[in-house]
Amino acid sequence: MKSNRILQCILIALSGAFFLTMNASADKLDDILSDGKIRCGIMFDVPPVGMRDNDNNPIGYDVEFCNDMAVALGVEAVIVETPAPDRIPAILSGRVDVGVASATNSLERAKSVGFSIPY
Questions:
Q1: Which range marks the domain in which residue 15 is found?
Q2: Domain count, the chain
Q3: 118 lies in a domain?
Q4: Which of the listed residues 17, 21, 52, 61 has the most CB atoms within 10 Å of its CB?
Q5: pLDDT in tens, 49-59
Q6: Whole-prediction pTM value?
Q7: In the Cβ-directed half-sphere of 25, how many Cα atoms lie within 13 Å?
């Protein structure tokens, strides 16, 4: 039952990230599936949400969220370190496919990108 709830949350987040992003191409999901990877922009300066372990590997809730999305889509997760000021520019430039990070949904930001339901 819990895994179904997690999968529902992942799918809601994906739909928000893919289908509500104004400047993204309509076939972003197809691109991700054909590339076999999803590039997630994650901040590593917000423990326990995003950080690095003693071996400098990305860990945290947002990393796990990206990994879960990748599993749900059947693709590889690629974690891209994305500092706070670069979250939206990274999406708009295509450097990342989705931003998995906390960001306040403001009117100004909503002019550029869509937001999923907060997790």
A1: 2-110
A2: 1
A3: no
A4: 17
A5: 999 999 999 99
A6: 0.70
A7: 9
Three-class secondary structure of residue 114 per DSSP: coil
Report d(CA 100, CA 96) in Å as an integer. 10
Phi, psi (deg, nearest 5) at residue 73: -90, -15
In a domain, 115, yes or no: no
Q: Classify residue 47 by its DSSP letter.
A: T
CA distances from 6 to 13, 67, 118 (A): 11, 12, 13
Residue 22 pLDDT grade (very low, low, confident, very high; cuts 50, 70, 90): very low
Instruction: Read off the CATH number of the domain in which 78 is found.
Output: 3.40.190.10
CB 62, CB 100: distance < 8 Å = yes
CA pair distance 95, 30, nearest whole angstrom: 16
Residue 46 has a pLDDT of 87
Strand 51-52 relative to strand 58-59: parallel, antiparallel, unpaired?
Answer: antiparallel
| 116 assigned to some structural domain | no
Q: What tens digit of pLDDT does each residue of 24-45 get?
A: 455 889 999 999 999 999 999 9
Residue 89, domain member (yes or no): yes
pLDDT confidence bin for 19, thresholds 50/70/90 = very low
